[in-house]
Amino acid sequence: MIKLFHIEDDEAHRVLVSRALAGTGADVEITSATTGVDALAELRTFRCDCILSDFHLPDMTALELLEQFKNQQLPIVPMVVMTGRTDQALAVEMLERGAQDYVVKGSVDGELLLRSIRYSIQRHQLSLEIQKTNRQLVEKSRVLEEQKAEILDKANRLESSERYRTDFLRAVSNNLRNPMNSLLSLSEALCDDDNENLDDRQRQYVAAIRDSGKALLSSIEEIELLALSRRAERSDQSTTTRAETGQRRL
Predict the structure, then answer these.
(1) Which helix (H) or strand (E) holds 2?
(2) pTM over 0.85
(3) Are the CB atoms for 33 and 40 separated by under 8 Å?
(4) Which domain, by its residues, includes 19?
(5) DSSP E strands: which ranges in 62-139?
(6) How far apart are CA 7 and CA 68, in angstroms?
(7) pLDDT in tens, 20-50
(8) In the 8-state DSSP scheme, what is residue 99?
(9) How far apart are CA 30 and CA 17, in angstroms?
(10) Are residues 182 and 92 in the same domain?
């Protein structure tokens, strides 16, 4: 079931929208408000899946309503805006301000409106998943930086124990590589947006996740190279020691 919050002061249009959605056969539960102020008050406690709002409300526009959502720190809900104008610049501005989609107000097509509502909910859910992944990556980055600092500190303090340090570096780099490769695979999959489910801002988020992951993977590779170089140094030292021992025996 879709819980829809409809903000519209024209009762005739509210009825038209309700009938159009009912005609699709979809299970849609509609709660209504007639002004932006009433909607803001109601949405402090009411939880819905999507907001359908007329652009011109009696007390504010949909753009101002979106701004009030941010200013009052209300729960983020996907919004579809109904407007009687086909102004492309206005449409772009609404999407930039936080609306997920818009439909031209006129003859209400129930199937088209339902598709827009579902599309907005899906895009919102995808956006939340990207934000969650980004937060996880930031946390992973913080942990990796702390571990890297810890590794370097231990490497400096364990200068006298080359074998222990080399084994430690190899073990840590191996443990970090697998989760980082998983994060990179996820970000690459999101970047391959063949169905164009992401908007420009979401693509930027995904690209940032991917680039950060590659940078961190490069740090892991540096750790692995450090471990290999230490092993090579130890091997060379061991060979030199054996050679010197052999010469002394001769």
Answers:
(1) strand 2-7
(2) no
(3) no
(4) 2-108
(5) 79-83, 101-104
(6) 14
(7) 999 999 999 999 999 999 999 999 889 999 9
(8) -
(9) 10
(10) no
